[in-house]
Structures are given as C-alpha cells and as structure tokens.
From TrEMBL:
Protein name from the UniProt record: Hydroxylamine reductase
Recorded family membership: Belongs to the HCP family.
Biological process terms in GO annotation: response to hydrogen peroxide
Reaction catalysed by this enzyme: A + NH4(+) + H2O = hydroxylamine + AH2 + H(+)
Pfam families, alphabetized: Prismane
Origin organism lineage: Archaea, Methanobacteriati, Methanobacteriota, Stenosarchaea group, Methanomicrobia
Function recorded in the entry: Catalyzes the reduction of hydroxylamine to form NH(3) and H(2)O.
Record GO terms (molecular function): 4 iron, 4 sulfur cluster binding; hydroxylamine reductase activity; metal ion binding; peroxidase activity
Amino acid sequence: MFCQQCEETARNLGCTAGGVCGKSNDTACYQDAVNFVLSGIAYRRIHQPKGAKIPANTSAQDTFVVEALFATLTNVNFDESRFDAYLKKAIAYRDAYPQIPGEPKACSWVPKSREDIIILDGGIGLLSIEDPNERSLFSLLLFALKGMCAYYSHAEVLGKTDPAIVNFIYKGLASRFEKHSFGERAALVMESGKVGAQVLALLDSANKRYGVTEITNVNCGVGKNPGILVTGHDLKDLYMLLRQTEGKGVDVYTHGEMLIAHAHPCFKKFPHLIGNYGTSWANQKAEFPSFNGPILFTTNCLVPPPDTYKGRIYTTGSVGFPNAVHIPEKPDGSKDFSSIIACAKKCDPPKDLECGDLVTGAGHDAVLALAPKVLDLVKRGKIKHFVVMAGCDGRHKERAYYTEFAKALPKDVIILTAGCAKYRYNRLGLGDIEGIPRVLDAGQCNDSYSLVVIAQELAKALGVEVGELPLSFNIAWYEQKAILVFLVLLALGIKNIMIGPNLPACLSPDVLNMLVKEFGVQPNTTVPEDMKKLGITR
Ligand code: SF4
Ligand code: SF3
C-alpha cells in the first residue's frame, strides 16, 4: 500500500505498512483498486467516439461512482468486503461501455483473485504514476474529487443534483490516463476548486430543507434516558432517526460535526434531541466508552473502536467497519433504524462529560442578519480583524497550536470557523464583542461556503475587495474535504492562506513552489510569528 491522502500520513511521507488511521494494507489496496476502475469508467465514458453505443441512462452509475469514491476518503470505510463489492460493481459499470482502441489498463483490468489486488498494488495505486509532478497534481486532484463526492452525496440525498458537477468528477478521474502538461494539470486542480464552490453552494441550498440556522446555545449535558449518539455529517440520517425514536423513551445526541443540527429550526422541534456529547472525532476513544449507548456513524471520521464499545458501533451510507451493523438505504431513500433503537433500550443512560454549553449556527444568513452591527463595530474600531480558522481536527499534539493561537488573539479579533477544527477553541470562553460572539461557528466543514459568503458580503458592504478586508486565513487540515475547501478558497482568489499543521505530503517541490509563488500559500510556524505574518497586532 501507499497512501498519503491525510495530514497524519506516516512521517509526513506516506503510509506503507498499514495506515496511521488504522486502515489495513489490504483495505488500502482494495481502495486503490476501486479508484483505478472508477478512473477506467470515467475514461471509457469520456473518450467514446461519436455514435458509440453507450449506456443511455447513467444516473444509478453516477450515484455509485460518487458513493464509492466517498468511501475511500479518510476514516470513512475500513471494511474490505464493502470495497470488494464496490470493485465488482465498478467493473460491471465499466464493462457496459464499448472498448476503445488504445485504452489504458484501468479500462480492462479484472483481478482474478484477492491476491491479484494485494500483490498488484504497485501497478494500480498512485505510485504507478512515475513523474513526480504528474503524481503530485493528480493526487491533489483526486483528493479534491473525494471531498467533492462527500459534499455532493450529502446534497444528492436531499434531492439536489447538478450534472455539471458529476461530469467534472468523470473528467478529473479520466485525466489520470491522459497526456497533460504541468500547466494543464495545475489548471485542472484549480478547476476542482471552482467546481468545489458550486458543490458547497448546492449543499448550502440543500441543507435549507431543515431551515436556516440560527445562532444557538447547545446543551452539552445528559438526560436520564438511554441515548443514541449520531456522528458524521449526514443531517438526513439524523432527521430520520429522530422521527423513528419519537416516543420510544430513547434520547438522541449529536457528536462532532453533527453539532450544527441544533441550530436548524427543524431539529429544534424534537425534545428528545438532548444536546451534543463529547468533542471532536480525535477524542472518540476517550469519550465514547462513557456514552454507554449505541453510536451511529453517518460519515467520517470513524476511529477503529476498542473492545469497550466496538459492539455498539452502527454504520450507514458510505461508512463501514468490519462486523459493525450496517444500516442500508431502501430504494425509496428511507432507512430502518429499529436495530439501533432496540440496542439503545438495553443500554444505560450516558454519563455526563461535563463540557458546558457550546455556541453554533453562525451561518451566512445568521451572520448577515447581524451585518449592520458588525459593520458598525468594524467602523468604530471595536472589531479590528477577522481570522478564518476553519478545517479539521486531528490527533497530533502539535494541534495544540490552534488552541494557543486562539487564546493569543487580541480581544478585538473575531474567529470565523467551520468544521471540527473548532473543538480546539470553542470551549475557551473567548467571549463577545458588544454581543457578537468572538467565535462565529458556521457549522460543519460542509458549511465552509458560509465563510466565503460572509467575507464577500462584508467586502461589498465596506466597498472593498475581499483581499483588502482585515481578514486572514489560518486553516487546519486533516482529510480530503479540507483539501477541496482549500482549493475553493484559491479558486476564489484568496491569497496568503496559512495551512497546517503539516503541508500535504503529496506536494512535489515544483507544485509547492507554484502554490507559494502564485497564491502566497504558507505553512504555519509559531503563534507569535504567525500573528505577525497575518498582520494581527496586539
Ligand atoms: Fe495513512 Fe492517512 Fe492514508 Fe490512513 S488515510 S493510510 S493515515 S495517509
Ligand atoms: Fe472533521 Fe473528520 Fe475534517 Fe468535517 S470529522 S472536518 S476531520
């Protein structure tokens, strides 16, 4: 195996003998095989000569490609048997297209045995792309596509689709086997950022199904009933579970990225949605044992569970873990959560982690409703700077940097955040500026679009360009959705983004040089030095 798609990759070079995330060598090889054949589907779809007999309706195939690629994102699926099923289905979809003369191996490759997949890893994984710049740029593009598939799939389950986005996913996958110059590959990477902005906008409109978020105080204590903990990013799963648990004597709690649900009016209607339990995904092993009840993983991040709560893990959607109960989607889009509800009834109620309240819900609508007040504070010099600290959390000790950075900010600085990165500073009690919370949390990484809208609207109201705002970006990344969000920001013309704690390992020296020269991308260093670089004065 060779995998370097996340920030915790071994020695910041690549995982080669099992993943730091817990992904086994064999599962990693299966993921490579699935990605390889998905690129084969894309190549055959895009390069058919005019008049070729191609499948008439590919909507089921499109949904499948998006789900399968999403499943290979970090901490989504650790179950080899699920990838075996994805692989077989991918081959069937690919083979429904006519062969093309001179097509790449991915268009005809069929493994004869499990060993074929494991042994042939070197021939189908990303290391098979020999040129380091080509590999670097395609890796960046592939990681962005994984993030795109995650966001697109959330929008799709809520009924929002866009064929232009799906076409770009195929275009990107097929580019793996095409001849492109450095400049053309770099342009494709930038195009993924542009399409990424469209995906985030689509998801933003899809999430409106649950009402526009309001700035909300979320209870982090526990009730007396047994509970089900829902983690991941899929609001529809949470909603369906809440409907099915009504009146059953079972409470529901959000975890991690699900915190934002409490700010949507549709979720506020459920009295048995008690509150948020625990902090970011990185603390699952410490926090989940005391929850006592079952835990439903709707998407990433799943940390391979120890025996203490292994038997209480349920998965759905793209998520998988060996021997965990998987709750499938029915043809009409509904899911039957009776097994997890039955499990909860036999469990003790959760034990309090005593975390105190959290504030969330500062999406673009909620913040723009406060715009006159915010603008007045800016004009009166009460707010001197905004810093976007969105992104992911992770396990490494050096992420304490983000807590220290937030603590060291002068009291006239507002943090705009989204994603699980916020758990590094959303319990610090950073207070408010004349009633405006100093940590404005738009919600999930899925809601990063809000931060862009807020920046654009602030600039408009102040009659300046976004680049002229007292606004800096200090982004924490971990998995591939953060790569996509980073590229979205670049595509929107945002310069001098600071990113950490480590730069993506897939960047070749030439690609890094391009990002530094053209966009001023910079790695983070120490808190005082970075404050200075970002123009934040005390
Ligand atoms: Fe390693 Fe990250 Fe890949 Fe897991 S997802 S195998 S930790 S690079
Ligand atoms: Fe977090 Fe996994 Fe990326 Fe959605 S839950 S931001 S890491």
